[in-house]
Records
---
Amino acid sequence: MSEPWEDEGPGEVKKFMYVNRKAPYGTIYALESLEVVLIAAAFEQDVSMVFIDDGVYQLKKGQDTQQIGMKNFSPTYRALEGYDVEKLYVEAESLAERGLTEEDMLVPVEVMSRDDLARLMDEQDVILSF
Amino acid sequence: MPIEVNGKSYETDEEGYLANLNDWNPDLATAMAAADGTTLDENHWEVINFLREYYEEYQIAPAVRVLTKAIGKKLGPDKGNSKYLYELFPYGPAKQACKYAGLPKPTGCV
């Protein structure tokens, strides 16, 4: 019997992509996606997160939720690195349409064109959309 | 089930985790540990304080794997391993230490 501190191997590694399309507050999608990513990180898969449309606001610096009475969970995106989730892609068109740039993002991201993202999506084994 | 410390009552959830993070104080941690039959020494406090700082920064309680790695980075490899942490917190380092630190139960944790 194995002890709890003994790691089992990761088995077959699949490419998981989590696609985030919605603004961080107002619906539960952004927070749920983040929690799923944090839990699934334990399975040591090849994980990436994509931020498209209003989803880019999830990574916007300087979020202040006091007036809407919700917890500001944006600092948690900075914990992703510690969970070995380091591939964060933001769609260039979505940023531009909202007057945002890479500088507005609260974590290091890779800004990618819509076409390149489409190609990246083609390579995935599993895509989960939130 | 509320927990009584120094004549004050603190709200907890059904698993004994503190309902309000801001209620926390060191006496509360000591009392929670005593209820589990544990006496906290400086090694326990090192982990508890680490967890509180982690939560302050990231707004989550870390998974045990992440906690182990982060402890190793900060306190050295002889403390950043599962065996050491399980000896300190036999009910599961993240779960038990988070409880004493007044944090919510870690997301998807042991």
---
Amino acid sequence: MSATALTAPPRRPDGLTLLVLPALAFLGVVFLLPLLLLLWSSIRGPGGFSLNGYARVLGDAYYLQVMLQSLQLGLITTGGALLLGYPAAFALARARGYAQVVLFALIFLPLTVSIIVKSFGWGIVLRRDGILNWAMENLGLIERPVRMIFTEGALYAGMINVFLPFMVLPIFSVVRMMDTRLPDAAATLGASPWFRFTRVTLPLSLPGVVAGVSITFSLAVSAYVTPSLLMGDRFMTMSMVMAKAFLNLRDWQLGAAMATVLLAVAITVVVGAAWLQKRLATPRGS
Amino acid sequence: MRDGGVSVGVGAAGHLAVSGATKRFGAALVLDDLSIAVAKGEFVSLLGPSGCGKTTLLRCVAGLLRPDAGRILVGGADITTLPAHRRNVGVVFQNYALFPHLTVAENIGFGLRAQGVAKREAAPRIAEALRLVRMEAHADKAITALSGGQQQRVAVARALVVRPSLLLLDEPFSALDRKLRETMQVELKQLLREVGITAIFVTHDQEEALVVSDRIAVMNAGRIEQLADPAALYGRPSSLYVLDFVGQSTRLSGRVVETASNEIAIDTALGRIWAPGSFLRGSPVIVAVRPEAVTLGSAQDGAANHITARVAEISFLGSRTQLHLDLVEPDRGVVELPRLPDGIAPGASVPLSFRVADAMVFPAP
């Protein structure tokens, strides 16, 4: 039928394929190849094929504890960044002129500061004779210095600081495109501020929230530098175990297995988020 | 009242009464001590160029903005400080602002849900609203699947289903193409008349205002220049601003040379013109006449003004033909004829006449 001929023109290699080819080739060499080698290492014991790496990672109480700790770190960091980042993204999207420039700088400048510099900064603020203890003591809030550095609280604060921009940016980009007359329209229909938020603003901002959550969680669950610098061996994450396995223990199979599990977690989150995004983007109704 | 004989229905107990509304954005005075009263069941258009304050006034009435000064009453109740969701004032937004994440029926039912109307009461009301705008077949469709005209119908149904005491429409036809716009203007007017609601249209399109309104408020710089029914607005504009904003006209500047009882003679570039009015001799004035009030030829019964002008351009508009007269700015001339007689071409001098009563005189700016 001529109709089918119109809707399905003959396929031939087009410009799009050519445009994406260099990037694909690059990723193939620097990403896919090492990834396959990693998967290969995870199932190769001293005596040939072995699932011993996975057995240890998934069976050993210590490694399970590490995984749980990593997930906990990812969840708390993501939750904290969402609580702080969601209203911040709205403020950023609604601000005009200088206010927007200043807010933008406040939220995104920390990204430009090296994580090492930031960690030492936190040390100066948080340590026993640091600025925070000094201030609280002089204000009479505390009798003697409080231990803050090398505590989980400090770790979460640091993690949220590092990953907050990754939560704010996707939410901001969605909120900025949102039609501000939609909540207005809801108001004229008799919707209270809470009803407007839960039935209009929140649902429309969800694509940004899903993107922000998936990016922040994937980054936080695999964090290495921030927990190492802020907690050291007191708080082991999956990435830290991996590094230890590869660098200190020379136990490639263990490291590769842990890496594969971490990868599986990240892929699950990213694919799940992509599916959710698509569902949210599809308007309801026929 | 301000100078220029602005007649605004203040004091008349209106269904909607705005008095002394003033609103500033920074240094800009957007509403300047504006007052207007609208009777129950009346359709009033707020007509003016962008930046004249018409949308600001609409947002103040809807409760989306609070005026710096002044009061807003609906049905006698002062709603000036009431938030939008407690006002029961419906709004059809420009480009409709339909909820993209909800279906047609969910959009229409939104207000009922927000106001806590029980499902079994809401369902028949949504069905009735769908029927009213002839969208029954599209109840479960996505908003994005609708045409512009259908979206407008949904927006109207969504606003009407909660039975507002007043309906505000912000440039409701601007998103539609010309042909559809004309159809929807008539359709919407009939629909709102059927519902019996008081409605206020905001528009910058004078033709649209003439079609849909019982009365038109021409706005300028945060004030109402004139509030009148379409025929009066067109036939007796209170100022040059209204004359120019609504319809076309021939405009000639001149000086009053003779005064009689209620009539004056003005010397213009096209000769002496008699017009009704009382101005001091020597006053600089502008005399204007609407295009269709002018006829070709000098054979018109007494008391007529006779002039001769050169034709600069001829525009054929289908049902009528326009002659643009060759005049020097700021004078300009346009004449409309039902049909063009033979032998008239650009460059030709033509005799024209019009009644004294059709001439309008304004003080020169």
